[in-house]
């Protein structure tokens, strides 16, 4: 069993932050606080990527989630009846079932993780510049079809989301 | 076995458990989307951990992370599109009231 103390400590720290802020998302009544807690949780996930020496993905995750959660916070304020949480509305249902499902999923996953032999761990990751270059070659080489499909999927989703969201007019009907 | 791999995967399991609870227990569409985001974040952590500690020389692992990030963005865009049309027609995005999907 190989152990790198510094990496383990940082993984535990940022991992605990990610899970804790994930819990806060569903514990606070204020929707804006929920969105900000989710932003912190995703940022902690990005920091975990940095600890695991995936620099490009870590920075990408933090930048992407910062913009995504800002948009989400705006939507929260627009769509919620009580965005500030001052009325302490209960917006949950089937709580017991959800707790059981989450708990069973967590326990099962932990059992698999700690009871499985994962084989020997790789000691070192390639350097950051080397990784980015290799990822670029992967994207525009072997995985080009998958990469282009992802781009097309985003384009389709953008058009679909815009078409769904456009207000129906009288002559076009619904 | 690497202890760092087990820690990262355990964090992924934690995020998955919390996200599953949120996606199932919330009645508001935007909050359900937040739960799904947490579940996808768990998948991301697992993928990066597998890449780093098992196969750091194979870049298909990082490629897979980019695909899951795409899925996150698409899920948000389509989810908010549905939220807008739902809010316009019903004045709320409470899913308890959504008995059918006629818009």
TrEMBL record, chain A:
Catalytic activity: a quinone + NADH + 5 H(+)(in) = a quinol + NAD(+) + 4 H(+)(out)
Keyword Hydrolase: no
Protein EC: 7.1.1.-
Domain of life per record: Bacteria
Membrane topology: Multi-pass membrane protein
Major site of localization recorded for this protein: membrane
Pfam families membership: Oxidored_q3
Function (record text): NDH-1 shuttles electrons from NADH, via FMN and iron-sulfur (Fe-S) centers, to quinones in the respiratory chain. Couples the redox reaction to proton translocation (for every two electrons transferred, four hydrogen ions are translocated across the cytoplasmic membrane), and thus conserves the redox energy in a proton gradient.
Family under the similarity heading: Belongs to the complex I subunit 6 family.
Protein known as: NADH-quinone oxidoreductase subunit J
Organism of provenance: Allgaiera indica
From TrEMBL, chain B:
Transport listed as a keyword: yes
Sorted UniProt keywords: Cell membrane, Membrane, NAD, Quinone, Translocase, Transmembrane, Transmembrane helix, Transport, Ubiquinone
Cell compartment(s), UniProt: Cell membrane; Membrane
Membrane topology: Multi-pass membrane protein
Protein name (Swiss-Prot/TrEMBL): NADH-quinone oxidoreductase subunit K
Gene Ontology biological process terms in this record: ATP synthesis coupled electron transport
GO MF assignments: NADH dehydrogenase (quinone) (non-electrogenic) activity; quinone binding
Keyword tRNA processing: no
């Amino acid at each position: 069993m190989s152990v790198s103390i510094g990496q383990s400590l940082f993984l535990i720290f940022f991992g605990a932050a990610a899970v804790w802020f994930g819990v806060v998302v569903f514990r606070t009544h204020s929707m804006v606080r929920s969105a900000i807690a989710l932003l912190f949780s995703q940022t902690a996930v990005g920091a975990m990527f940095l600890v695991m020496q995936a620099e490009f993905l870590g920075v990408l995750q933090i930048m992407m989630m910062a913009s995504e959660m800002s948009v989400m916070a705006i939507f929260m304020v627009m769509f919620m009846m009580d965005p500030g949480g001052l009325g302490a509305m209960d917006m949950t249902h089937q709580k017991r079932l959800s707790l059981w499902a989450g708990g069973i999923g967590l326990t099962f996953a932990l059992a698999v993780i700690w009871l499985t032999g994962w084989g020997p761990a790789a000691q070192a990751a390639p350097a950051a510049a080397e990784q980015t270059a290799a990822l670029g070659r992967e994207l525009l080489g072997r995985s080009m079809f998958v990469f282009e499909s992802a781009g097309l999927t985003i384009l389709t989703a953008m058009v679909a989301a815009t078409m769904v969201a456009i207000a129906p007019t009288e002559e076009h009907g619904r | 076995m690497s202890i760092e791999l087990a820690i990262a995967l355990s964090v992924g399991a934690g995020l998955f458990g919390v996200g599953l609870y949120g996606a199932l227990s919330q009645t508001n569409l935007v909050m359900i989307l937040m739960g799904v985001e947490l579940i996808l974040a768990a998948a991301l952590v697992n993928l990066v951990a597998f890449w780093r500690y098992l196969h750091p020389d194979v870049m298909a692992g990082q490629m897979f992370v980019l695909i899951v990030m795409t899925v996150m963005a698409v899920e948000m865009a389509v989810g908010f599109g549905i939220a807008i049309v739902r809010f316009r027609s019903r004045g709320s995005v409470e899913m308890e009231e959504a008995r059918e999907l006629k818009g």
